[in-house]
Amino acid sequence: MRNKFIAISIAMMTALLCACGNNTQGDETVENNTVNETTETGMSEEDMSMFASGIATDDSEGVNAEESQETSANEAIVLNNEIEETCPTSVTTRRAGVDYSDYTHGTYYSETCGMERGYSIILPGDYSEDKQYPVLYLLHGIFGNEYSFSSDSNNKIREIVANMAADGLIEETIIVCPNMYAATDASQQPAFNAEACLPYDNFINDLVNDLMPYIESKYSVLTGRENTYLAGFSMGGRETIFITLQRPELFGYVCAISAAPGIVPTTDGFMTHPGQMTEPEMKFAEDAIEPNVFIICCGTNDSVVGTYPKSYHELLDTNGSDHIWYEINGADHDNNAIKSGLYNLFKQIAYDKANN
Ligand code: FER
């Protein structure tokens, strides 16, 4: 039954797939040698990428693309604290004179995993040791790795951060895309079962104890919660919520996009989740220093995680934990949700910093 569901889901989503965007990269830039072979999971690499970084979308086709293209091309962003469901095309469109930095790739030694691990990183175009930059840690979906975001140019991450910085809305920001599968055995593989998902839940230790200290020592970054942001898509959204509830003092600005089930016990079409915590436990501790901004969002047409993100919002409400919840009308488990979430995260950062 479960296999049948997975097969149907994969067939459905495969039908929506088109090729991943190309990277335009220089010397030490990221390569993603994706081969469309079937893996141990029974899925092709291409099928897995749709979980890892979303169902493929056409370049710049926002959910309300026509409308937003008419109204927002070259339109200045009005800085308020309102959520905008659709990321404006003026934010995702390339402009003359703005430097859209490439991803580069690096490695660090993880004590947590007992091995060297990779990350992709976007440094601002004019990165200089004489400046210090805030950092966003951006977590991919299930079956992903540090290349999941860098291999899909349609998520517009490079454009969103560079355009918003060029407009003076946000500071130039470093984006770190880790490999979220923090296994201690290099041969372990992700799958839709509880044991195979444990390394995702172990990522909190790798992030806090290994990756963050490494990034803070290697790059010229601003430290502290005001300058440290966390966001993730799907499985990365689930871990974003988990990490934020566990270590709220570390991250001032957080966005969980299309978060996957499994924070609390449940059974969905893919698997039974034992849960990372019970429902009453899904809240900030009494004395927690909470994030300034904690966004949870999801498309109204999400064909993979459905209404799980909404259920997280409702549970956090019930348990009295502050957050912003919104839905992206018409968006699936895709880049329209990713673009919206990242845009709104940076917009909230911009507003908060301009007004506090
Ligand atoms: C699940 C449904 C969705 C699940 C994970 C996902 C681990 C993740 C999807 C994605 O990352 O795109 O039941 O269990």
Describe what this molecule looks like in 3D.
The chain has 356 residues and is an alpha/beta fold. The chain has 10 helices and 10 strands. The strands form 2 sheets. An 8-stranded mixed β-sheet has the order 1-2-4-3-5-6-9-10, with helices on both faces. A hairpin with a 4-residue loop joins strand 1 and strand 2. Helix 5 packs parallel to helix 10. The radius of gyration is 19 Å and the shape is globular. The relative contact order is 0.16. It binds 3-(4-hydroxy-3-methoxyphenyl)-2-propenoic acid (FER). The site of 3-(4-hydroxy-3-methoxyphenyl)-2-propenoic acid has 15 residues, from loops.
Provide the fold topology:
Elements: H1 2-15, H2 45-53, H3 65-72, H4 89-92, E1 103-110, E2 115-122, E3 135-139, H5 157-166, E4 174-178, H6 194-201, H7 203-218, E5 228-233, H8 235-246, E6 253-257, E7 266-267, E8 272-273, E9 293-299, H9 308-318, E10 324-328, H10 335-355
Parallel strand pairs: 3-4, 3-5, 5-6, 6-9, 9-10
Antiparallel strand pairs: 1-2, 2-4, 7-8
Helix pairs in contact: 5-10
The structure holds 3-(4-hydroxy-3-methoxyphenyl)-2-propenoic acid.
3-(4-hydroxy-3-methoxyphenyl)-2-propenoic acid (FER) binds near residues 262, 270 and 304.
* Share of helical residues: 25-40%
Distance between the termini: 53 Å
- Measured on Cα atoms, how large is the radius of gyration? 19 Å
Give, in spatial order, the strands making up the sheet with the most strands. Answer: 1-2-4-3-5-6-9-10
Number of strands: 10
Broad structural category: alpha/beta
Oligomeric state of this protein: single chain
Shape field: globular
